[in-house]
Amino acid sequence: MELETAAHQLEALGNPNRLQIYRTLVRAGRAGLAVGQVQEQVGLPASTLSHHLKRLIDRGLVRQDRAGNSLICHAEYPAMSALLGFLADECCADETCGPSSDRAPEKVAG
């Protein structure tokens, strides 16, 4: 994943409303949720929800499919995995081979 793509996706998720919408869709699973169901769960006005969904769609984090008269929103799990991988891939890559930082500091006798 490119740095610019990751930055745009993280910026989109940096808004509390968009993060709540995204988490709702991630929890919904692969079946997704109709826009009305998302609105019920997050409690946003339709126009505000539409604005936030558009931003998430533009950043590749959400997609919408039409099912009859309904729009079904889905979290884009491959995009989520790529973003999480981008953040974790180089975890501790520059760390020296010293003692593990997971351990509690040793007490100094005094």
From TrEMBL:
Keywords: DNA-binding, Transcription, Transcription regulation. PROSITE patterns: HTH_ARSR_2. The keyword Cell inner membrane does not apply. The keyword DNA-binding applies. SUPFAM superfamilies: Winged helix' DNA-binding domain. InterPro entries: ArsR-like_HTH (IPR011991), HTH_ArsR_DNA-bd_dom (IPR001845), Metal_resp_trans_reg (IPR051011), WH-like_DNA-bd_sf (IPR036388), WH_DNA-bd_sf (IPR036390). GO terms for molecular function: DNA binding; DNA-binding transcription factor activity. Signal peptide: none annotated. Residues 1-95 form the HTH arsR-type domain. NCBIfam families: HTH_metalloreg (NF033788). This is Transcriptional regulator.
